[in-house]
Specification:
Elements lengths: L5 H13 L3 H12 L3 H13 L1 E2 L2 H31 L7 H27 L5 E2 L5 H7 L2
Antiparallel strand pairs: 1-2
Organism: Pseudoalteromonas porphyrae
Protein name: TIGR02444 family protein
């Protein structure tokens, strides 16, 4: 069993997200291909640690966050986009936007905790170059 720490994963994610065009790339994967950003980040994290998952474990991770993603994260993103599109008619938009972004960030961290809890129940293989992210991106 590989006990990974969610705080270390969060720190890795924040640093990775801010590098180069990673934010743009991750959001494009989310918006154009329906990929989960936190799962992409986890797979990069596992790659950086030299830990390989198999396709069954990937399916488990996808299923583990599916409900949270569909019922919590997606509606929040939709609400935020709707408010942004109609900001001229919304009193206090800047404050509302700031609070929604803060809530979304807290929920992203919660989703990462869900992923870490799930991966900590798995036996992962050590491998020099695991390429977990490629397996996820190839998975339609």
């Amino acid at each position: 069993m590989n006990l990974l720490n969610s705080d270390n994963f969060w720190q890795f994610s924040c640093a990775f997200y801010e590098q180069c065009d990673n934010q743009k790339t991750l959001l494009a994967l989310q918006n154009q291909q329906g990929k989960n950003v936190n799962l992409c980040l986890l797979l990069h994290y596992l790659d950086s640690l030299g830990l390989k998952i198999n396709s069954n474990q990937l399916d488990i991770l996808v299923a583990t966050i599916s409900d949270f993603d569909q019922n919590v994260m997606c509606p929040l993103r939709t609400a935020r986009a709707h408010l942004k599109a109609n900001q001229a008619t919304i009193s206090g938009y800047a404050c509302i936007r700031k609070e929604l972004l803060s809530a979304e960030l807290k929920l992203e961290k919660q989703q990462q905790q869900i992923l870490i809890d799930a991966v900590n129940c798995m036996d992962l293989a050590k491998q020099a170059a695991p390429h977990n992210i490629e397996m996820y991106l190839a998975n339609t």
